[in-house]
Amino acid sequence: MERTTQRMIEIPRDVMTDEELWQPGVLSCQGCGASLALKLALKGLGRRTVVVVPACCMSIIAGPYPYSASQVPFLHVPFETAAAGASGVRAALDIRGEEDVVVMAWAGDGGTFDIGLQALSGAAERNDDILYVCYDNEAYMNTGIQRSGATPAGAWTTTTPGEAVKEEPKKDIEKIMLSHGIPYMATASVAYPADIYTKFRKIRSIKGTKFIHILSPCPPGWQIDSADSIRVSRMATQAKVFPIYEVEDGRYTINVYPEREVTVKDYVKAQGRFRYITDDVVNAAQELADRKWEELTGMVE
Ligand SMILES: Cc1ncc(C[n+]2csc(CCOP(=O)(O)OP(=O)(O)O)c2C)c(N)n1
Ligand SMILES: [Mg+2]
Predict the structure, then answer these.
(1) Which protein residues have a CB closer than 5 Å to ligand 2 (ion)?
(2) Predicted local distance difference test score (pLDDT) of residue 19
(3) Half-sphere exposure of 113 toward its Cβ, with a 13 Å CA cutoff?
(4) C-alpha–C-alpha distance, residues 261 and 258, integer Å
(5) How far is the CA of 77 from the centre of ligand 1 (A)?
(6) What is the DSSP string of 70-134?
(7) Probe ligand 1: pick from 143, 146, 173, 222, max atoms within 8 Å of CB?
(8) Which position among 1, 14, 43, 177 has the lowest Cβ density within 10 Å, counted as fewest Cβ atoms?
(9) Residues with Cβ within 6 A of ligand 1?
(10) Which tens digits make up the pLDDT trace of 182-231?
C-alpha cells in the first residue's frame, strides 16, 4: 500500500500549533475519518473555538464530560439544530464582546443534507457568522448505516439492503450552499490533511457563514479495511468523485488536481458497500463525475 504520511510535511510548521485540542483515546472506530478531520480542523482554528455537535458519531466519539477528548467547549444539541445552536452561541458570544471566538457546527451528512438542512439554510440566508462543517461518511453511521441524501447511487446500506442498493445520486450540497451567496464554501478530505489545516486557518478571518464539506471515510459503513481509509478517500478525489476546491466570494480555486488516472470503477471496486453496483450505475456515476469536473474547471478563472 502507498504511504500516506508524506503530505503532512507540507504543513507550515512555523504557524501550526503544537497544542493538541483533540486528545487521543477517543471512542471512534479505527480508521475513522471524522475524528482525524476534527483533530486537523482544531489545529487550524486554535483554542478560541466553540464546537456545536448534533446527534451523530462525533457526539459519541468525543466522550462524555469530564472525559471528553475536546479541549475546547463542546456543546451537544438535538439532531436537527446544529446550525441554529451555532447561531445562538454566536449571538451570546457577540453580546459578551467575544467576536474573535469561532463557532463551529460539526455535523454528519444525515444532520446536514437531510434533517438539519432547514436550520442550516436559515443561518446561511441570514449570513450568520458561523462555520458549519459537514463531515460526510455518506450514511447515518451512528445508528447502524442507514441511507442518507449523501449516500451515493449503487451503495449498500441497511435501508438499501442486499442487492436493493440506493438508486438516487448524492444530493449536490455544494450547489445548495452556494445558492445562498455565502462568502466561503469549500470541500476537503482527510486524504489531504495540509489542505484541511490551511482552510480552517483561513476561515478565522472570514466573517459570515462558512461551509466546509469534508469526505470522511467510515470503515464499517464503507466495508473497507481500516488501514485503507485514507487510500480510498484519496481515490475519491483522484477519480473526480469528490473534487477538492474552495469558493471565496464567488471565486473558484481547485486545491487538488488529480495526478493519476483513477476511474469511478476503481473507486467503487475498492469498497464492499458497492458489491452489488451495476455497470450502468458505474457508467452513469462516471459521466456525472466527468461532467461536474468539466463544470468546475470551467468556473476557475
Ligand atoms: C430527531 C432525531 N431522530 C433520530 C435520532 C437518532 N440518531 C442519532 S445519530 C443518528 C445518525 C446521524 O447520522 P449522520 O448525521 O450522518 O452522522 P454519523 O452518525 O454518520 O456520524 C440518528 C438517526 C435522533 N437522535 N434524533
Ligand atoms: Mg453520516
Answers:
(1) 108-109, 137, 141
(2) 81
(3) 24
(4) 8
(5) 11
(6) BSS-EEE--TT-HHHHHHHHHHHHHHTT-TTSEEEEEEEHIIIIITTHHHHHHHHHHT-S-EEEE
(7) 143
(8) 14
(9) 55-57, 79, 108-111, 137, 140-143, 148
(10) 999 999 999 999 999 999 999 999 999 999 999 999 999 999 999 999 99
Residue nearest to atom 26 of ligand 1 (CA): 79
**Residue 3 reports pLDDT greater than 50:** no
CB atoms inside a 10 Å sphere around CB 246 = 20
- pLDDT, residue 17, reads 64
Backbone angles phi, psi at 88, to 5 degrees: -65, -45
pLDDT tens digit string along 83-126? 999 999 999 999 999 999 999 999 999 999 999 999 999 999 99
Give the position of cell 456545536.
52
Choosing from 26, 57, 159 the residue with most ligand 1 atoms within 8 A of its CB, the one to mutate for a pocket test is 57
First to last CA, the chain: 36
Residue 243, judged by CB atoms within 10 A of its CB (0-12, 13-18, 19+), counts as buried
Ligand nearest to the CA of 113: 1
Q: Tell me what the pLDDT averaged over the chain comes to.
A: 94
Domains of the chain with CATH codes? 6-299 (3.40.50.970)
